[in-house]
Amino acid sequence: MSAAVLDPPGDAPVVELTGTVDFKSVPELRKRLLKVVKKRGGDGLRLDFRRVTRMDTSGVAMLVELHQLASSRGSRLALIGLNEQVRRMIQLARLDRLLGVSIGEEAGCQ
Amino acid sequence: MSAESHLIDMQGLNSHYGGRQVLFDIRFTIPRRQVTVIMGVSGCGKTTLLRHLIGLKATQPGQVMIDGEDLGGFDEAKLRAYRLKTGVLFQGGALFNSLSLWENIAVPLKVHTRLPEKIIRIMAVIKLGLVGLSEFCDYMPSQLSGGMRKRAGLARALAMDPEILFVDEPSSGLDPITAAGLDQLILDLRETLGMTIIVVTHELESAFHIADQLIVMDQGRVLAAGGPEEIQASGDKRVRQFLNRQADPRWTENPATSSCLPGERVEEGKG
Q1: Per-residue pLDDT of chain A (110 residues; tens, 9 = 90+)
Q2: Topology (CATH) of A2-92
Q3: B37 phi, psi to nearest 5 deg
Q4: What single-letter DSSP state applies at residue B72?
Q5: Interior CA angle at A31 toward A28 and A35, to 5°?
Q6: A58 contacts in chain B (CB < 8 Å)
Q7: ipTM of the complex, rounded to two decimals
Q8: Which single residue of B33, B102, B165, B201 could bond B137 by disulfide (Cβ 3.0 to 4.6 Å)?
Q9: What is the 3-state secondary structure of B188-223?
Q10: Using CB atoms, which residue from B123, B129, B130 is nearest to A58?
């Protein structure tokens, strides 16, 4: 798993995730993402999932925590390019509404 | 179906308790990412078979292949790695009574991962939500009904997102609505997570609803194996008796075994 942080000026930071988001990768990934949300405060955070192959429940839990932190700072988490497995994983946990993921939606939420 | 699509290959499993043989030359395959239901009357060897598959009962080399490797040849490290990939729901739920529900689910996550407490807590709530118990996170097992404990046991079996899920009698003791909910969850887990699920049950309706493949056992032997339609169409007398819920003639035809009764035995023709 790798995570590249892109910080376009005047826009919300984007983190491009690559690989598997699971209980092995989440501890380190979570630290990095929490740092970005804390640093950029109300700017929001866009997570680009286009290169993510698979995500387990620990990944969903991490998204919930990031969502809670972003909301507490008046901003939002946007999930981009979810594949079928990731989307269904979020739906199975019944967190699709909380995380703004729609059935059949191509690019996640903004 | 190719050999690669089979996760488990039973190549002639025999099992004993002391000197008594309880499983005889068990042979069948379990496909990946499908639901296999093992059914049969009580005492037919279903649970013993399950105990072999989850590594709780020693298996002789050459009898069971898991993902192409010999279960009987697993050393401790391999057996541990295999168990991490599996989740098990035992008949009684098997919860720790001194821990709350979410703490029960947290146990394997705390032992086997480096996940922080906050993530573990959210994961536990997600798993409890899957079985309709997210509002009972802080309850102790003793505060729950039997059916709720069973559902909590399933949530704990799912804690590590296992690749293989073993479920022993999921519907026993549950009301029809809760049992139907569990059946649907099993199908969702197969569909969403691609889990390979092995269910041991004698609940016919549930078995035919969830199964991609059915194994019918009787007296320690495999009587029939196949898809639901194949099993429904079976002409085997014993399979038909099971499917039609006919009483076992052995119960009604045989007199009480006098050798098991206390008191003096009276030989025939005397007295």
Answers
A1: 777 877 766 677 889 999 999 999 999 999 999 998 888 766 778 899 999 999 999 999 999 999 999 888 888 888 999 999 899 899 888 888 888 765 444 444 33
A2: Transcription Regulator spoIIAA (3.30.750)
A3: -110, 125
A4: G
A5: 145
A6: 113, 115, 119, 123, 161
A7: 0.89
A8: B102
A9: HHHHHHCCEEEEEECCHHHHHHHCCEEEEEECCEEE
A10: B123
Q: B194: which 2 tokens? A: 């691609």
The residues spanned by each domain of chain A are 2-92
pLDDT at B255: 56
Q: Given B114, B116, B123, which is nearest A57 (Cβ)?
A: B123
Residue B144 structure tokens: 């729950």
| The model scores a pTM over 0.80 | yes
Contacts of A89 in chain B (CB under 8 A): 192-193
pLDDT in tens, B84-93: 999 999 876 6
Q: DSSP assignment, residue B95?
A: -
What sign has the CA pseudo-torsion B256, B257, B263, B265? positive
The amino acid at residue B254 is: N
- Angstrom distances, CA of residue B204 to CA of A16, A52, B169, B269: 48, 40, 11, 46
